[in-house]
Amino acid sequence: MSDYGKIGAFKAPNKTMSMVVLTMALVYNVIFGFIRNPAETDNTLSWLGYDYPHGFLMWGVLTAAAFFLNIIYLYKKFGYPGRVGTAFAIAAIFFMPGVVFINDWGWEQTAHLIATLIFIALNSIAILMFFIHNYKKHIKYRITTFLVILILAGMITVQFTLGKSGLLELVPLWLALVLLFISNFTSFYPVYPCETAKAQKKKNIKTARKLACTLGIFGAHNLYMNRIYKGVGQLVMSITGIFLCLIPVIGMGYVNDIAGGDAKICLAAGVSLLSGAAVWAARDVFRLKRLESFDVSE
User: Fold this and answer.
1) 285 and 182 in a common domain
2) Contacts 24+ apart (CB under 8 A), 274-278
3) Which residues form the domain of 115?
4) How far is CA 294 from CA 90, 143, 212, 213, 287, in A?
5) Which of 39, 41, 71, 255 has the highest local Cβ count within 10 Å?
6) Mind listing the pLDDT tens digit for each residue in 19-55?
7) Are residues 168 and 263 in the same domain?
């Protein structure tokens, strides 16, 4: 396999796996979306998830897997290094539990909405970055970039003017999955020679240090530098820590009314994980600063 068949130390998924999961996700999304009339305002995915939690869980697993595998495969196929996009695609996975498990009233509904918006934003940006990168190479990329931005802007506008509806959520989701299918498994978009292996491996120490200072506990700097396993490790620690700290406040799906000693245990575990992630990030900041001063590229 050529160098661009991997995203850093992370081996990109193969074509068959990506196609199978994407097809399953698209079919399931269409059928699940039409359990009730999606044109009605109270038949959003959130409402379906509230009434059919196990079906909603299946939807979450397939949708998250389809986006992740096919975004990574998209980068592989076209030789796009996409370190930030890769980081976003990985990060999106960790917000899906908040979408499917936190779906109740009050604080839980707010947490569900935030997790949903972040999941959509991360995957949308990861896809959009690829098309923006190829914007000047062919008119098909330019048209697609314009359409993606138009759909996202239209979805946001309608959301805040006309209110929620099932179709408002489902149609952009279906279009995104179809776009990934066309990009990955047809010859519609032309493939251009990828960057050299040397260019792909070049690290921007200064940018990584800034990321470590601001988003270090989430592993942003390691994901940026293609240290996928370290970055994912920090991301898992921080996201898990935040969820554990919030469990006594918002609950998680079927786990509610946590109080007393159990709440303190959750809080202790959460703060412990966040402390570990913070120390890890601080160490990386000093290490990157030292590398920058010596002008060393790993």
Assistant:
1) no
2) 274/217, 274/237, 274/238, 274/241, 274/242, 274/245, 276/237, 277/217, 277/218, 277/234, 277/237, 277/238, 277/241, 278/216, 278/217
3) 1-200
4) 31, 44, 18, 19, 11
5) 71
6) 999 999 999 988 888 888 877 766 777 778 778 888 8
7) no
Contact 274, 246 (CB under 8 A): no
Of the three residues 185, 200, 215, the one that is the final residue of a domain is 200
The total number of structural domains that make up the chain: 2
- The verdict on 240 and 98 lying in the same domain is no
pLDDT at 184: 94
Nearest to 119, CA basis, from 129, 111, 109, 130: 111
User: Maximum distance among all alpha carbons in the chain?
Assistant: 62
CA distance 14 to 7: 13
Note whether 50 and 107 are same-domain residues. yes
Listed in sequence order, the DSSP H helices in the chain are: 15-33, 45-51, 53-78, 83-93, 96-101, 107-133, 139-161, 166-185, 197-201, 205-215, 220-224, 228-250, 260-293
Query: Could you tell me which of 165, 185, 184 has the C-alpha nearest to residue 173?
Result: 165
Query: Side chain identity at 200, as an amino acid letter?
Result: Q
> What is the rounded average pLDDT of the residues 111-122?
84
Closest Cα partner for 91 from 125, 62, 59? 125
Token pair of 170 as six digits: 């489902």
Give the domain-ending residue among 171, 200, 229.
Answer: 200
